[in-house]
Design brief:
The complex is a heterodimer of chains A (187) and B (546). In chain A, helix 3 packs across helix 4 (68-86) and helix 6 (115-125) crosses helix 9 (157-186). Chain A has 2 domains: 3-86, Rna Polymerase Sigma Factor, Chain: A (Orthogonal Bundle), CATH 1.10.1740; 99-186, Orthogonal Bundle (Arc Repressor Mutant, subunit A). Chain A is mainly α and 187 residues long. Mean pLDDT of chain A is 80; it is low at 90-101. Chain A contains 9 helices and no strands. Helices cover 73% and strands 0% of the residues of chain A. By secondary structure, chain B is mainly beta. Chain B has 2 domains: 79-298, no CATH class; 303-379 and 424-545, Porin, CATH 2.40.160.20. Chain B is 15% helix and 45% strand. Chain B has 8 helices and 19 strands. An 8-stranded antiparallel beta barrel of chain B has the order 11-12-13-14-15-17-18-19. Chain B is elongated and about 100 Å long. The two termini of chain B are 79 Å apart. The chains are: A mainly alpha (187), B mainly beta (546). At the A-B interface, helix 2, helix 3, helix 4, helix 5 and helix 6 of A face helix 1, helix 2, helix 8, strand 13 and strand 14 of B.
Chain lengths: 187, 546
């Protein structure tokens, strides 16, 4: 069925068409929610909350501005961040690393690799503390810049940079540690 | 974000979300409530609609009140009799409300050779509403004059009096029988016979009592006025045809005074007071016992109270409910944003004493002293460092040299952190003077619905508790008073709907839903944000009438 018709009928409250739209978007949004959550039940909660917002705001969706998937993901990200803001965990022990390292870090996206490594990276990402996970997600995967991240998370731009850099280090160290462990077991 | 990164993201999301069972997730989504409103929000709305409906109903169909002459449903009777040289003038007005769809009009004029009898009767009866039956009787006999005007308006809706059948037999010269009305519940057969000096008139309206001696209670009072003072119509000389006819029973729609020492109930336009009980006894009305003649309603506390028309009353009340608040601030005030996100209004309760001044039967002014306490809560899940220790093999640095990334491990201090939940409560107290103009509408002899609007002025206000100290969730708080809340001079809009009931002659119990809404901010003008409350209360009132 035509996506435009599905959206229009969904706006009018047709449960059948809402279900079709839900099925169309659910897996992508669930995947996104997984990136931001520590476990799958939390990811599912985020996804459902995101769908509530999506259906509530579907009437303002403009197809000429973005496709429905991109728009829905933006809604879901904002929903997740809004929820996170309410349960903000303090940033403690944060040390700014030298600027020379930062730019080098930011230019290299660890997620630009093959699928098997991506799965490992996401698993490791979900083990990171919230602040690191959010910034890495927003910067490397969702394409936000530091200013946008800082505004959204109520932190300074420098803090955002530091979180990204430190988070990436921890993420890679976890991956390397895992690789080392595998290698030592093999020996 | 460039397209390449978009594609990478979508690819990752699809990969991660591939294990989702969409149907199950959709079913879960259907069960999820989209919006939750507080229980009291709905209860307040439902109660308001209910009370408003009762109010509208009682306004459209006003109830009958004993002793209230302004009520259209009252049965009224005016009798004038003249007992000078055998001249009797009698007029009667009655209000009849029946359940029938019948309009009746009848005019009778008859003249007797020995004198003259003129009888005019007009009876419109309307269903569900007030039915008016009018009858004018003018009769003159040779040895005197009898003038009788009768106008009936009977109400059966609440009086409980049923006109199952009504016959009027009047004996005049010829044995003419006129059937005026025949329907389900009202039949009137009038036989007009003209005979020598004999007039027989039977109005079986009163036979209703014979037919239904244990019928519903009715509120009718007959009062007569005679030029020479009080007149008892059981006196044959004063009402010459009363012996042979049941004309007297035509007047006896009710007994003003029952045997059980109940107070006499009079109507505003009543000119004379006397009991028609003797007339009924003379008119062959057979009752099993005199107690069955007590067709007046038992004098309820409400009736008694209404008659007393007390001016002042004192109320004690206590209520509980919830409230909402609106914090408004500039966009860069992140601290208040955090408060707005995390503060949850919990409870609102109030107690007070009220002094009521009754302006009319239904309108009264209410004031007094009211104490209100609104309680809110903030709850945070924060990380707390509980201890620190040295640990080896910790990643302490990361560097890229000559394009090669390098992790540097070493010994570092590690914080042991635990996640704790911290809860803080705030209390917003105020001592106020409410001024409310209220309207109370009786819905029956016992209950009244009321509605009121007014203002509430806070004499004293205080804030107790702590709230966030900073934008960051680090578990630090400071007193709410630091934020510039006012200590007095605060106005609130106040409105209520409720139900009241007399539980004794002087004491009334009531339940109210009250809405209090801040007209102005609770913070001072120097504060960089505004805070307004709307509270909903359900309260119990006990009112003592003096």
């Amino acid at each position: 069925m035509n996506l435009e018709v599905i959206i229009k009928k969904s706006i009018k409250g047709s449960r059948h068409h809402q279900k079709e739209l839900y099925a169309l978007l659910a897996k992508d949004l669930y995947g996104l929610a997984k990136r931001y959550s520590v476990d799958n039940p939390q990811a599912k909660d985020y996804m459902q909350d995101g769908f509530v917002k999506i259906f509530e705001n579907l009437h303002i969706y403009d197809a000429s501005m973005a496709n429905i998937l991109t728009w829905s993901k933006t809604i879901l990200i904002n929903t997740i961040l809004s929820d996170k803001r309410k349960k903000t965990i303090p940033i403690t022990g944060m040390e700014l690393i030298p600027e020379t390292y930062q730019n080098a870090d930011e230019n290299r996206n660890p997620f630009e690799s093959d699928d098997s490594r991506i799965t490992e990276l996401i698993d490791a990402l979900r083990l990171l503390p919230d602040h690191y996970r959010q910034v890495i997600n927003l910067y490397f995967l969702d394409g936000w810049n530091h200013q946008e991240i800082a505004d959204q998370l109520n932190i300074k731009v420098g803090t955002s940079r530091s979180l990204l850099s430190r988070g990436k280090q921890i993420l890679l160290s976890k991956i390397n540690l895992k690789t080392k462990t595998h290698e030592s077991k093999a020996i | 974000m460039n397209q390449k990164r978009y594609n990478q993201r979508d690819k990752i999301d699809q990969l991660l979300g591939s294990d989702l069972d969409v149907d199950t997730a959709w079913n879960d989504f259907g069960k999820q409530k989209r919006r939750k409103r507080p229980f009291l929000f709905w209860m307040f709305g439902v109660l308001s609609i209910l009370v408003l409906s009762v109010f509208i109903y009682t306004t459209i169909y006003p109830p009958i009140e004993v002793g209230n002459s302004e009520n259209d449903s009252d049965i009224m009777a005016d009798n004038n009799s003249t007992d000078t040289d055998g001249n009797i003038s009698l007029s009667q007005e009655e209000a009849i409300s029946d359940e029938n769809l019948t309009n009746i009009k009848a005019d009778y004029n008859s003249t007797n050779a020995d004198g003259h009898i003129s009888l005019t009767q007009e009876e419109p009866i309307l269903n569900k509403n007030i039915t008016t039956v009018k009858a004018d009787y003018n009769s003159t006999i040779s040895n005197g004059k009898i003038s009788l005007n009768q106008e009936d308006t009977n109400s059966n809706n609440n009086q409980g009096e049923k006109f199952s059948k009504q016959d009027i037999n009047q004996t005049v010269n010829k044995n003419d029988q006129i059937v005026r009305l025949s329907d389900n519940t009202t039949n009137r057969i009038i036989n007009a016979n003209k005979a020598k000096g004999k007039t027989e008139l039977k109005d079986l309206a009163t036979n209703t009592y014979q037919n239904t001696p244990q019928g519903k209670q009715t509120n009718i009072t007959n009062n007569n006025k005679g030029e020479n003072g009080e007149t008892n119509l059981d006196n044959e000389q004063k009402l010459p045809f009363s012996e042979m006819t049941s004309l007297s029973t035509n007047l006896e729609k009710e007994i003003a005074k029952s045997e059980s020492n109940q107070p006499t109930r009079t109507l505003a336009h009543t000119k004379l007071k006397y009991s028609l009980l003797p007339l009924i006894q003379l008119s062959e009305l057979k009752y099993d016992s005199k107690s069955q003649l007590s067709i007046l309603p038992q004098a309820s506390a409400a009736n008694t109270k209404l008659d007393q028309k007390s001016k002042y009353s004192l109320s004690l009340y206590s209520g509980i409910g919830t409230f909402t608040r609106s914090l408004s601030f500039s966009e860069d005030n992140m601290l208040q944003q955090r408060r707005l996100d995390n503060v949850k209004p919990l409870l609102s309760h109030s107690i007070g004493i009220g002094i009521n001044l009754e302006l009319t039967d239904k309108i009264y002014l209410e004031s007094g002293l009211s104490y209100t306490n609104n309680i809110s809560r903030i709850r945070d899940i924060i990380q707390q460092t509980v201890s620190s220790q040295q640990a080896d093999d910790i990643l302490i640095a990361f560097q890229i040299r000559d394009g090669v990334s390098q992790n540097i491990f070493g010994t570092a201090t590690v914080d042991n952190i635990e996640v704790v939940e911290k809860t803080r409560f705030q209390q917003y107290k105020s001592l106020s003077i409410p001024i409310t103009l209220s309207y109370a509408q009786p819905i029956n002899n016992r209950f009244r619905v009321e509605f009121g609007v007014g203002l509430q002025y806070a004499l004293l206000q205080s804030v107790v508790g702590e709230t966030y100290n900073s934008v960051e969730s680090i578990g630090e708080y400071r007193p709410v008073t630091d934020y510039g809340y006012k200590t007095s001079n605060h106005f609130e809009f106040r409105t209520h709907v409720g139900l009241r009931s007399y539980i004794s002659k002087h004491i009334e119990l009531g339940v109210r839903t009250t809405l209090l809404s801040d007209i102005q901010s609770r913070t001072s003008s120097l504060s960089d944000f505004e805070d307004r409350f709307n509270s909903y209360n359900i309260s119990v009132h006990m009112t003592t009438h003096f």
